[in-house]
Every structure is written in structure tokens, then in C-alpha cells.
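In this section we turn from sequence analysis to structure. A common task in structural bioinformatics is to predict how a protein folds when a small molecule is present, because the ligand can shape the pocket around it. The inputs are simple: the amino acid sequence and a SMILES string for the ligand, here cytidine-5'-diphosphate. Study the lines below before reading on.
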Amino acid sequence: MGLGELRGVVALDGPSGTGKSSAARRLAASLGARYLDTGAMYRAVTLAVLRAGVDPADAERVTEVARTLRLVQGSDPQRSTTTLDGTDVGTDIRGPEVTLAVSPVSAVPQVRELLVAQQRAIIAAALEDAGGIVVEGRDIGTVVVPDAELKVYLTADAQARAQRRTRQDNASGRTSTVDATLADVQRRDAYDSSRAVSPLRPAEDAVELDTTSLDLAGVLAALVDLVEQRGLRVVAVGG
Ligand SMILES: Nc1ncnc2c1ncn2[C@@H]1O[C@H](COP(=O)(O)OP(=O)(O)O)[C@@H](O)[C@H]1O
Ligand SMILES: Nc1ccn([C@@H]2O[C@H](COP(=O)(O)OP(=O)(O)O)[C@@H](O)[C@H]2O)c(=O)n1
């Protein structure tokens, strides 16, 4: 028997390497729901900024790039796609240049305004089509969907997060060391938490889940429990 279907929005927020993408994708897939990776959208705008030769700190020109690009973010948990002007950029947006520049680009209020509007449209369409969606990012519970049925804020020790991210980078052919990754993780944590607009922080009504000593299966089980407790899982008659 399947796990049943998700009804409503699950918002998953938290810093880098806490397991948001992995857990969100698995949760959505196991509950017949859609999945939205909002970080991929900020990364795609950043890639376009870099390709245009624009300084990520130049808010005016960054806004111009964000206004003119054609960004399409998919919501299929089995195959989460990101395209820029019709071309798949799923690999390029994970590169170190984008990771280095993404925080300043994400701090530009006009960029956030454009992307939040697009995210809300994707979420509305997913609720209409599939009934449920798992959305992950930094401001989902606080700004994008403040009335989400379930908000979870994932945390983990910085060291554990850096180890996970380094393993992931090395597995996808990007050489990095734990020390360098730890420095990057801490730099982005500080930048994302201290920006003026939509800083990274838990929503007041979010459930905090520390994933430091949980494996992915453990994180997924905790999330399924929370979905269940909130009555967000609908089991089809005879299912
Ligand atoms: N609880 C966990 N235990 C072990 N590895 C994990 C755990 N959560 C995530 N990972 C691994 O860490 C890496 C980063 O996870 P990811 O889901 O991309 O984090 P985030 O989206 O929060 O940045 C991935 O390779 C993932 O498989
Ligand atoms: N909802 C979101 C999602 C991401 N972001 C920004 O986008 C960056 C990349 O997000 P991500 O989720 O892809 O990053 P990782 O944690 O996976 O490395 C973050 O460091 C934030 O600066 C944001 O500002 N708001």
C-alpha cells in the first residue's frame, strides 16, 4: 500500500546541506505531490547574471537581467528541471561560480519579488493539478506561503552539512575539500540570515528538525509523521 496523497503545502526551509532538496523530493514523490526547488530559481538568475558579465553586487543591472530572462522551473519530483531561455541549466547552476555569487543576487529585493510571484503561481497550479506540493528554500514558511499547512525548519551542525555537501560535490565530479566547503556554507549562512529582505529564519509556527544524526530515511520518516499528525495525508478508498 502507498503512503497516500498529500493535501496542501509543506514548506521546508533551512540552511545549506540540511537535506532540504533530498527530503523534499522524496517526500513529494512518496505522497504523489509536486516539488518546488526555489534555490534552483535563485541559482538560475545568478547564472544568467554571470553569463551577461554583470556584477552580482550591481542591484540595478541584476534586476534588469532577472526581468528579461525566461526561467522555467519544473515541479516533477522525479525530474526537477530548470531551463533558461529554453536550455537546461540543471548542472551549470550547481557550479562554484554560481554558489559564490548566489547570495548577493538573492538579496536584491526586486529579484525576490519577481521570483516569489513566479513561485506562488507554480504552487497554485500544482495545488490545482495534484492537490499537494512540497516547497523548499529559505523563506517559504515566512514569505512565500505563510499559510502553509505544515512548516518544517531543518537544521544540522555546520560540520555535518559541509561533509555532506563535499561528498555530494565530489560524487558529481566537482573537487572540493571539507574546509573550503565549510567556509562557503558559513559565509552563505551569514549572508542569507542577515539580509534585509526575507532573511533565512524559522517561521514562528515552524517545527524544527535537527538532522545532524539522522540519515535520509530518518528525516523522511519524521516528515511523514508530521504530515500524518496534521491530517494532510489522504488515503484513497480501497488504497
Ligand atoms: N540526513 C542526511 N544524512 C546523510 N546525508 C544527507 C542527509 N541529508 C542530506 N544528505 C546528503 O547531503 C547532500 C546535501 O543535501 P541536500 O538535500 O542537497 O541539502 P540542502 O537542499 O538542504 O542544501 C546530498 O548529497 C544529500 O544526499
Ligand atoms: N527561497 C530561497 C531559496 C534560496 N535562496 C538563495 O539561494 C541560495 C542557493 O539556495 P540552494 O537551496 O540551491 O542552496 P544549497 O543550500 O542547496 O546550497 C541560498 O544560499 C540563498 O542565498 C533564497 O534566498 N531564498
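The pocket of cytidine-5'-diphosphate (ligand 2) is lined by residues 16, 21, 38-40, 42-43, 102-103, 106, 137-139, 188, 192 (CB under 6 Å). As an exercise, try to locate the residues that line the cytidine-5'-diphosphate site and compare them with your own expectations.
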